[in-house]
């Protein structure tokens, strides 16, 4: 018998959410050929739920009886987990709901969290279907021994007033443009980010804006998600103790909450799922294409970016405010497009839970 992650109640095992449209549209085939067999062999009771449209998973977890499930497992890209996390946070009982153990298996084209967790596990790096089977093995092992660890959530306040919860990244400029522009190459899988990067390098742009951040200090685990106590209202200056970067033209601003931006882009080797840190990178205008290419190549190998290029800055932060002062240039949260306008973010250490 499988020990339940919540031993106080009867369990139906795990819910497995699959987005059949993610990646190259092969997630169902991947489930059938690998994951179902692994869960069955491991003796993990599971129920398959195939999403029918965008926001289906979000609505489902908003109203589901979560007490039935030991964990909610997502076989898709990061986009489906983003829906699940934000759906859980929209519930009246969100404080309890967000403690539901979540699991992620790489079935999309952007599998950044799965690649990050796989990296933290110490397993040798693999890609594509090998990454899926390796993650599947690690997940089954963790489910059988009830291993759950904290997952940082970053609360992101948009200028519209909307509040989103992110586990991966906030990007503006180059990286966000690549993410959205390369969606048209979804059929080629994770390689789309490399192709998109090369295309965007060929027509390099700059983006005027302002950036300020609160340098990292002590953070508590499982802190309160109710309010973002570190940030000031948007119509007020940033609080004392924040660092203001001079208004300037940027090539990119990238706030990373995990190690990987995609299977191929290992941006932040020091990041961990519950480090309570925003790993903030920004590149100022004036950088040469060659230098920028070196930065992206360093990311592909996971080597240290410090000193890779004089235009690249890296700081560890707990909160930030980013204010675009130009109309072009996209902004993304966990790879999903949001309005490109002033945003604030604050990390909440280990606010969610991930099976690993
Ligand atoms: P990928 O990494 O390939 O982009 P994602 O998991 O990020 O895969 O999913 C991409 C988008 O598809 C997400 O915005 C998600 O909300 C949406 N989605 C989920 N289920 C479906 C579906 N059945 N049909 C179409 N889109 C869906
Ligand atoms: Mg996606």
Automatic annotation (TrEMBL):
Its EC number is 2.7.1.91. Residues 9-160 form the DAGKc domain. It is found in: Endomembrane system. The keyword ATP-binding applies. Keywords: ATP-binding, Kinase, Membrane, Nucleotide-binding, Transferase. GO terms for molecular function: ATP binding; sphingosine kinase activity. Transmembrane segments: none annotated. The keyword Metal-binding does not apply. GO terms for cellular component: cytoplasm; endomembrane system; membrane. One of its GO terms (biological process) is sphingosine biosynthetic process. This is sphingosine kinase. It comes from Danionella cerebrum.
